[in-house]
Amino acid sequence: MVTNCRLVKSLFMDAATGSKDKGGYGMEFIVLIVYMFIANVAHTLMVVIPVSDPMWQVGLSLYSQVGANILCIYIFRKYLYHKNGLRLISKKGLRCCVWAAVIGIGVCLGHRIFFWIFIGFAEQSLRDIGEVVLMNVAMISTTVPGILYVALLAPVTEELVLRGIIFPVARQKRGNLYAIIISSIFFGLIHMNGIQLMTGLFMGAIIGCAIILTDNVYIGIIIHAVNNSFSFFNASVLNDKVWSMYSGNEFIQMAVGIIILIIGILMLRWEMGRGKRYG
Predict the structure, then answer these.
(1) Cβ of 126: how many Cβ atoms within 10 Å?
(2) CA dihedral angle for residue 199, residue 205, residue 207, residue 209, rounded to 10 degrees
């Protein structure tokens, strides 16, 4: 009992002092635990609010997550990564932003490969979510609050928590690979369903690599925002559900997405190395 109390005390001492000890509990896990607690409390409060329209119940739930993200960013603001190796307001920075957008489109189309590989898991996950919830999410995404959430609020706040706080803390502790893996796992877990666990792991790994290349968390925000926005455009304008496994052209979209993704990553890497080669 005494040992357990000491472990708990040590965990919160690390949180308070910003300990960089290589062993023991990591700040990345403390951030995740606090975030999950805040998010679940916020979600519970939103559920008990009487709303007649189920679609707006979903909207309140989504915005409660944004509030949880913002509160978590505020609590752990001293860990927020402020150094940016790439200046976005420059010719090089703007070119990198373009390639980040290309990567975002590639992720949006290319992630379907996991639905194809793990089709049984994907189908079960969709059944677990439920058709009514998916329909309400699709409907709220066509409203102004929904578009704002999908294209801006969710990407910005989620990336600041995961790649602005957790990623650099983990990176400083155990290096790049650990930071990519742990932030990607956390990214998948916070969405709390199997489908987004798969896509979160995939997109999280891509964003982590892009941040290492550019040393700029805002590149991750761009990739995330473009992925979400293109997903909305693909579903609403082109009438193609990005989560669909039976659209008839899923293999073509997967192949095109992976090609676009590879081009975007290679060009981002080339852009970041160009100054070193010719500077």
Answers:
(1) 18
(2) -160
Rounded CA-CA distance 90/72 in Å is 31
User: In the chain, which residues have pLDDT < 50?
Assistant: 1-5, 7-9, 11-12, 15-24, 242-243, 245-246, 277-279
Q: b or e along 130-142 (b: 16 or more beta carbons within 10 Å of the residue's beta carbon)?
A: eeeeeebbbbbbe
Structure-token pair, residue 243 = 């989560």
Please give the C-alpha separations between residue 58 and each of 49, 66, 137, 254, in angstroms, as whole numbers. 11, 13, 7, 29
Q: Which residue has the tokens 């992720």?
A: 107
Q: For helices 131-140 and 119-129, what crossing angle results, to 10°?
A: 80
Burial 213-249 (b: 16+ CB within 10 A, else e): bbebbbbbbbbbbbbbbbbbbbbeeeebebbeeeeee
Q: How many whole angstroms separate alpha carbon 135 and alpha carbon 6?
A: 48
- 267/129 Cα distance (integer angstroms): 37
- pLDDT value of residue 179: 95
Domain regions of the chain by residue span = 84-278
pLDDT value, residue 72: 94
Q: For all residues of the chain together, what is the average pLDDT?
A: 81
